[in-house]
UniProtKB/TrEMBL annotation:
<dbReference type="InterPro" id="IPR002401">
    <property type="entry name" value="Cyt_P450_E_grp-I"/>
</dbReference>
<keyword id="KW-1133">Transmembrane helix</keyword>
<dbReference type="InterPro" id="IPR036396">
    <property type="entry name" value="Cyt_P450_sf"/>
</dbReference>
<protein>
    <recommendedName>
        <fullName>Cytochrome P450</fullName>
    </recommendedName>
</protein>
<dbReference type="InterPro" id="IPR001128">
    <property type="entry name" value="Cyt_P450"/>
</dbReference>
<dbReference type="Pfam" id="PF00067">
    <property type="entry name" value="p450"/>
</dbReference>
<feature type="transmembrane region" description="Helical">
    <location>
        <begin position="6"/>
        <end position="22"/>
    </location>
</feature>
<keyword id="KW-0472">Membrane</keyword>
<keyword id="KW-0812">Transmembrane</keyword>
Length: 121
């Protein structure tokens, strides 16, 4: 149990450190900060207003994924699944189909859980 609390403390310390750095960057560069972490840029939106503008008002602009590599297309059904398709009419139809089957109100039809107090045979 002690090991877990050490990891949790390290996670909190790292998170607090990142938050401090992001606050400093926000004060200097504004509410949207791009950092190159590894080979890809990471975009941090640091205010509620900027997040709302980017994700609600301009959500369709940011909704899609970058184009997949050719090997990814071959291995992942040519981007025809809800988790790989680019945002657009195909993705919307796939999401609608997925939600019709896996909507929380219908999960009891998909997963038949045994009644409480009964044995599973």
């Amino acid at each position: 149990m002690g090991g877990r609390s050490i990891y949790l403390s390290l996670l909190i310390a790292c998170t607090n450190g990142v938050l401090v750095v992001l606050r400093q960057l926000r004060a200097r560069y504004g509410p949207i900060v791009t950092l190159h972490l590894g080979s890809e840029p990471s975009i941090f939106i640091t205010t509620h207003e900027a997040a709302h503008k980017a994700l609600v008002q301009g959500g369709s602009i940011f909704a899609s994924r970058p184009p997949a590599l050719e090997t990814t297309r071959i291995m992942l059904s040519n981007e025809t699944t809800v988790t790989t398709a680019p945002y657009g009419p195909l993705w919307l139809q796939l999401r609608q189909n997925f939600m019709s089957a896996f909507h929380p109100s219908r999960l009891h039809y998909v997963f038949r859980w045994p009644e409480m107090g009964t044995e599973h045979t």
